[in-house]
Specification:
The chain is of the alpha/beta class and about 180 residues long. It contains six helices and five strands, in the order βαβαβαβαβαα. The chain binds the ligand Nc1c(C(=O)O)ncn1[C@@H]1O[C@H](COP(=O)(O)O)[C@@H](O)[C@H]1O.
Length: about 180
Amino acid sequence: MTSPVVGIVMGSDSDWPVMEGAAQALAEFEIPFEVDVVSAHRMPHEMIAYGEQAADRGLKAIIAGAGGAAHLPGMLASVTPLPVIGVPVPLKYLDGMDSLLSIVQMPAGVPVATVSVGGARNAGLLAARMLAAHDAELLGRMREFQQELNDQATEKGKRLRAKVEGAGSGFGFGSGK
Ligand SMILES: Nc1c(C(=O)O)ncn1[C@@H]1O[C@H](COP(=O)(O)O)[C@@H](O)[C@H]1O
């Protein structure tokens, strides 16, 4: 089995439904990854060990997701030289604003690349881009992926124009109906 090059970690297994998006993106690009629960609050010693050992184990980037008082991404960034991508996980209260602010407002010197609330897919894609910067083949696949996005958006525009033009004056613009 190929060794993982991206670590996807989260504060609890309850974050998985969100964090799965990162795993899915990496799988699409055939990038080997590992997943684990690593909590700064609940298992601080294991969390420090994970961060300290990540680079020596061959990981190239860490994606860390957590909800609420989300200290995991920042704490990992403080003990690893690897890039850390933080995913704010939305919980029942505060709609993820708490985790977003906990992750994004890092002090200078300790960067965490924060994606949107619940934006685990983009975290996976960002990790893929980081790896692609040193991998011409992966870079090519990322370009293809971008072209597909472009084609899909163009197609959506075509369909919307056809729908609106087809409806003509009967479309009821501005009527709110
Ligand atoms: N924010 C953190 C950290 C941390 O930052 O170390 N550890 C767990 N958690 C978060 O607590 C939430 C509730 O966890 P439980 O569902 O296990 O009660 C999860 O979203 C987790 O990421």
